[in-house]
Design a protein that fits this description.
By secondary structure, this protein is an alpha+beta fold. The protein has four helices and five strands.
């Protein structure tokens, strides 16, 4: 099963160096959710559990050969920290680390990164990576 998942992901990544995606599917789960606080509300409706389905890190945790870097992207309106994942090809740690470094360079000096659309972020990462490649 793991080999099939790796093969499927490799096909998805054939034309890309990295995949940039959010770490969570929703920001409605409060930052302080978890033991001992076992319930929360979304749109005024009580919820208990199930937040694990909102974590988009799980697939990459199971596909352990893929390098992944989680990076902060700011805060949602309710104060919950937001983040993105930079995922690379199997065993290609250097590309993920370089993309992460480029992202960090794009917001260094501020207390938190600016929140930008993913397409703009991807262009920024690509530009910074190309700069580093051309310098090195």
């Amino acid at each position: 099963m793991a080999w099939q998942a790796h093969a499927d992901f490799a096909r998805v990544m054939e034309n890309f160096d990295i995949l940039v995606c959010p770490t969570n599917a929703a920001t409605d789960v409060p930052a302080d959710y978890g033991y001992p606080k076992q319930s929360y509300k979304i749109d005024g409706q009580p919820r208990t559990g199930g937040e694990d389905k909102l974590r988009l890190t799980s697939p990459f945790n199971m596909l352990s050969r893929l390098p992944v870097m989680s990076c902060p992207t700011g805060f949602a309106a309710n104060g919950v920290p937001t983040g993105m994942q930079i995922v690379g090809h199997a065993y290609d740690d250097s590309t993920v680390l370089n993309a992460s470094l480029a992202y960090e360079a794009s917001w260094i000096g501020s207390m938190t990164p600016s929140i930008v659309p993913v397409s703009s972020l991807a262009r920024t990462i690509e530009t910074e990576c190309r700069k580093q490649i051309n310098q090195g």
